[in-house]
Amino acid sequence: MRTPLFAGALLLLHSSLQAATINCTIDGTGAAPRVAYGSASDCKVSGSGGSYLLTAKKEPKFVQVSCWRDGPGGDVARCMAAVARNLANRKEFYVGTFQEPGSSGVRSAWFSVTFIN
C-alpha cells in the first residue's frame, strides 16, 4: 500500500519542480544579446562581447549556465561560462563566456541558463 502512495507523492513533487524550472538560450554573438529560445520576460539579458547581465523574473534558488561557440567552418568550439550573483539584487547574474577553460578574456558565445525557483 505504501509504494503507490510514495510513487504518487514523487510524481507530484516532480510536477511542481518542473513547473518552477525556466530555460532560456541566449545568442550572445551579435551586437546585442537576444533570447533565442525561451521567454524574454523570464530571462532579460544585456551586455556584449562575452560579458552579460542576466535578470530573472523572480529570484531563483538554483542556476545552471552552459555555453558554446561556433568554431571555424561552423563546428562547435570549446567554451566556458562563469556566473556571479548580484548580492544587492538576487535576480541579477553576471555571466562571462570564455574561449576555453584557462583562457583569459571574455568572448562572445551562445549560452543556456536554467533557473529553478
Outline the secondary-structure elements.
Blueprint: H1 2-19, E1 21-27, E2 34-37, E3 43-48, E4 51-56, E5 62-70, E6 76-77, E7 80-85, E8 92-98, E9 110-116
Antiparallel strand pairs: 1-2, 1-9, 3-4, 4-8, 5-6, 5-9, 7-8
* Class based on secondary structure composition and strand pairing: alpha+beta
- How would you characterize the largest beta sheet? 5 strands, antiparallel
Mean pLDDT: 83
Number of helices: 1
Strand order, sheet with most strands: 2-1-9-5-6
Number of strands: 9
Beta content comes to over 45%
Q: Roughly how much helix do the residues carry, as a percent range?
A: 10-25%
Question: What general form does the structure show?
Answer: globular
- Rg over CA atoms: 17 Å
